Amino acid sequence: MPEFIPATLFSELILPSLDISLLRGSREARTQELQSMGFFQGLKEYAPGRISKRFTLNNRYETDWLVPEGFEPEVGVDYEIDFEVEDAFGLNKDFIKEIIYKPGTQMKIYQPRQILTKRLELKNVTETSNAFLNWESIFEIDEDKHQLSLPANCDWKRHLSNVCFFEHKHMQPIEVTRYTTGSNAQIKFKTKEASNIKLNWQEQGESVGIGTILFVDGMRWNFTFSDEQLLSLGTNENVESSLRFSFVQDCFVNSSIFNNTFQANWVFECVTTTVIFISTQKNLSLQDSITFLSSKEGRELLNTIPLELFQLNVLSEDEDEEQALQSELISLLSNDLIIGEISNLLTPLYTELSGDSYISWLRILMSNTLSGGINQLVSTVLPDVGDNDLNVDPVWMGDDLTIWLTENESGGVGIINRFENVYSSDPLNILNHFSRSFQAGDYEQVDFDIHQLLSKLECDENLKSSFKAHRDSQKFSARVKANSTINDNLRKMGVILSHNFNSILHTRVLKAGSSKETDKDLKNWMDRWREIEKELKIEIPLNIASFLIAKEITSDTNVTINKLKDKVIGQLWPRGNVIRQSSTQFYNRFLNGNNRTERLLVEQMISGNGEIINYGNNWEVELHKAIIRKGIVKLVISSEHLSKLNQIILKINTIQIDQLGMFFHIRVNRIDRQLGEIILFVELAEAIQ
């Protein structure tokens, strides 16, 4: 017996298995071979249009896929076809239920037991063709007896109405129906062209679904957001600058003028880089810069900047695929109609963010972010629970957002039960953990700390001497001593010496060959990056920022733009939405489409809860009054008062509140560090529970 049995070893035993029917041997002497796979794994592996080599054991030409009889895709043509379930699964399928798919439309759901694959015999189709299933989910419950209300002074009171647990031990599991309506396939040809084909399950002319039913333990979170509330959350300047760039990028990805996501993102980066370059070099607004694209000079820039941005002008003649991509990109950016469409897609960079498409996108963004926060909350409270043990599914119904947190296995394996026990013992503490899921992450804090360090390095002699001693050290003991001095200075600044901070400090700032000049360059580049973002009121990713900085310094040197850009990228690090997403990401194989998150949106939503007081001359009086009014106060201490932190906490612990002749002591519930500020959460425990 093994010493350790992983939790996922028996995770799919409760599910039916799928027999995979494979055709082997020559065309004249075909034989059937049967293999077995897990239910969801088998459906994913043989999604209609996906080419699989999973069971290619004896001959590399034994390639399988699941397609309709006589399927022959047209090169470069996108279309939609129906796929008879009998062709895919034969008679080996069970009817499990009938659902209302759309208003007035019913759909039958079948659970197959066998997949009838075909051999890939089309000579012009490449083996990199892929497909993804279109999943749908239905959550059904008998009743919600175990519905729990929220604490009165919780951050989420305005938008989270209640939470509710459903478990087998209460004879109230959640009935989850997971089914797929078909797949989206991209068939790639040896001519470098591709066809996007949507295949829909059908039975005798009627749409059907393929899936199964699971009875699982779970938890329901009920949120409410009106369109006006969602729009108001995005009006903050920092939030809006992030939303503009992200929204435009997703508009490119969803546009019909591009063949695939890769091409859309490629064109998006080329075009936005050109627009921002025009704006910074010619001192134009974003609107005027987009209009400038249609001019002769603008078109020339649009054709040359991508070559420099992606180093396409240094491709060798042997790199046929890259040259084909380059030709495709140049062709797109030379088309007047395409440029007109692209200009329309760029308008949200400067216009008011509104409209049905923006609100729909904002709804998806909010539901994804909250789902990621719930996933992060479970990982914090139950650190032994893996990402694959639970599924998080957001469902919108009008203004109501329901997020289902369900176990991945049927029957109830105890995860939801453990989480319920922790939540019931102290709901306010759990919801405070939930709020902290949307605070600035470690990498965001490191970015601020390094910039603060470089700013202070210009005027702090102690820091300068410790940096010089570190760089001049010839012996290990001398370097250890210098490093200790640097750490002491950093602690006085309030910097937390985390692994991420030390990693960036020693690979970017104090790396071999660094000097006062490299410190100055790095500080100037970071300042310039922030300056461009502030001027244009949009976030700019690392690749674009490094290109713009390299273009500004290339005239002062004989170094090529490619080498300068690589040098800048090697010194800087990613920041913005791409970093913020890392703290709220989650995986659910049953969700399709956009998985973007934005923690700033939720942080803005909960930041207004509780009274905020800045440390100053009358902070004690203001704190006393606010505690009586609200019961909880956020005391914000700026970096220059960091040395007084211990005295402030000591003073808070001595403050008494007179309530109807009874004296109560207030307490510091938690201390947060958000960028350059320390926030003390001060509360009167008797008033907030």
Question: Could you write a compact summary of the structure shown?
Answer:
The protein is of the alpha+beta class. The chain has a domain at 610-688: Translation Initiation Factor IF3 (2-Layer Sandwich), CATH 3.30.110.
Query: Class by helix and strand content?
Result: alpha+beta
* Strand content range: 15-25%
Shape label: globular
Instruction: Indicate the mean pLDDT.
Output: 88
* Helical run tally: 24
Rg calc: 29 Å
Share in helix: 40-55%
CATH topology of the domain at 610-688: Translation Initiation Factor IF3
CATH architecture of the domain at 610-688: 2-Layer Sandwich
Count of β-strands: 23
Largest sheet: 7 strands, mixed
Low-confidence stretches: 1-9
Annotation keywords:
689 residues; alpha+beta; Translation Initiation Factor IF3; 7-stranded mixed β-sheet; 5-stranded antiparallel β-sheet; 42% helix; disordered N terminus
Structure in words:
This protein has a domain of 79 residues: Translation Initiation Factor IF3. It is globular and about 90 Å long. It has 689 residues and is α+β, with helices and mostly antiparallel strands. The N terminus is likely disordered. The strands form six sheets. Strands 4, 5, 6, 9, 12, 13 and 14 form a seven-stranded mixed beta sheet that branches. The protein contains 24 helices and 23 strands.
